[in-house]
Amino acid sequence: MPVHNHEIAERFTRLANLLEIEGENPYRVRAYRNAARTIGGLSANIADLVSEEQDLTRYPGIGKDLAAKIRTLVRSGELPDLTETEERVPTELSDLMVIEGLGPKGVRALYKKLNVDSLEDLEEAARAGRIHEVERFGEKTEKAILEEIEKIRSGGKKRTRLADAEEVARPLVAYLAEAEGVEAIEVAGSFRRRKETVGDLDILASCGDSGPVMERFVTHEDVTEVVSRGSTRSTVRLSSGMDVDLRAIHGRSYGAALHYFTGSQAHNIAVRQRGLERGYKVNEYGIFAHDRDEEPVAGATEEEVYGRVDLPWIPPELREDRGEIQAAEKGALPRLVTRKALRGDLHAHTNATDGADSLRDMARAAAEAGHEYLAITDHSKRVSMAHGLDADRLRRQGEEIDRLNEELNGITLLKGSEVDILEDGRLDLPDDVLAGLDVTVCSIHYRFNLPRDKQTDRIIRAMDNPHFRILGHPSGRAINEREPFELDMERLVEAAAERHCALEVNAQPARLDLRDMDCMLARERGAKLVLSTDAHNTYNLGLLGYAVDQARRGWAEAGDVINTRGLEDLRALLRRG
DNA sequence: GCCGTTTTCGGCCCGACTGTTTTCAGTCG
């Protein structure tokens, strides 16, 4: 029986794929896809909402019909529409849709003509040269299909972590900016929305003549393949495996193009819909009054574009069609937290445990980063792999911190610990030791696989300890490596709010944990956030911006984040009432 | 199948590029 949101989303995506292959009404297909997207991006657990008999139609894209189907699916484990559809078309056809260049029409044709209904069949047919004999298929397509299958078999096609994408994007943009005629250039797409992972990079350049920049792009030394090439758009594959799109546009269209290519797609559709309601056609070249398509009425800046549909400019991090348009309409957009608003970092390690640098070096680097305070939170003893500190070593570290604080100017070191939450919910250090600390970051490093209720109870029991201040990397996920552990995030967030415990947004590129949607949930339920680096060396202190990104995607304002406070306010907050 | 400061019916975003074609369908973002 499917319990997880992503399993429910997967069923609806499969249903959408199969119906599309059958040639069903495309709007009905889209409705299923939209529902899958909504469900996949939901913080609350759908199965819980169903058992609590909550109204599912309050979620976008879910109407009476779909709400009933979801209830049936959760209760019986079956989606009758999917079962019926699978009696008519092989369910594996849905898997073929992941092949790039192969859409519903192509899958249908190959099934009808060659009886291809699995990845294995497809590979065999391609190798035997039977694909290019089918109408509208040629030798190139056949070859591309084989290459795609190869890629899937070798496990490729993962999305790239934001920080990894950044490493590729920054130098590439600098390189392209030197092309003749480039007036402005920036990365759009999910990168600009600061999503935790990006599929490919969308770079937008404004210029008069696109020739030079396109030429410079496709001849970059890291390019292994030019996937497509045109005067306004080209796509290349880099040696890192990432795909990059470059779009060239005239300056008068720059804002419209930036808006268009920043997305998300769902946000764009909503904005364009508003355009239509006001008699405008919105595309990447500008906003056009209907019936006349010569000159755009707006388009040089994003502000103009939003202005024409009667909205204020919306920050890219919010453009996910998660209510930002309604909020903008009411003038109720959040004033998102910024990197500059942060006064310090509340999670850092030293070479006393698994960090690389000394207390003194960490302090100096934090001062250079402009921090007012830095909490030293080395591991507790349970994390033996990292030489976790016992009570005695922690006490000695505290004395060293006292000495350094006497000596340092402009930065205060806070005494802390990243205390392990043990399996039974106790903390890994005695209460009298914890009582002597300024801050505790309480985290799980062992037993990730407890059942959902047990894991949730474990953390909440730990929060009952009055020395519990901050829940470190709450979901435990590692992007592209480890799924978050099973948690009732709603119950957890509510428990944190009641007990005045803060939730960490960990800036480590592989963590970014809390996730954006959980930040949103925390904000809704009144739980405070902390944006921290979990630095293991001095350079890591510079990662803080990644935590800011995720918090912004979760609509967080400075007031939702405790490390926007000055030291005295912060100390008061950490006392937990 | 969803959705509604024009609507409970009749709409539903829009353009570029490719491959396979001689004018365009399919796919993608």
TrEMBL record:
Annotated EC: 2.7.7.7, 4.2.99.18
Domain spans labelled DNA-directed DNA polymerase X: 3-320
InterPro entries: DNA-dir_DNA_pol_X, DNA_pol_lamdba_lyase_dom_sf, DNA_Pol_thumb_sf, DNA_pol_X_beta-like, HHH_MUS81, Hlx-hairpin-Hlx_DNA-bd_motif, NT_sf, PHP_dom
Domain Helix-hairpin-helix DNA-binding motif class: 54-73, 94-113, 129-148
A molecular function (GO) term: exonuclease activity
PANTHER family, per database record: PHOSPHATASE YCDX-RELATED
Free-text function comment from the UniProt entry: Repair polymerase that plays a key role in base-excision repair. During this process, the damaged base is excised by specific DNA glycosylases, the DNA backbone is nicked at the abasic site by an apurinic/apyrimidic (AP) endonuclease, and POLB removes 5'-deoxyribose-phosphate from the preincised AP site acting as a 5'-deoxyribose-phosphate lyase (5'-dRP lyase); through its DNA polymerase activity, it adds one nucleotide to the 3' end of the arising single-nucleotide gap.
Protein name: DNA polymerase beta
Species annotation: Thiohalorhabdus methylotrophus
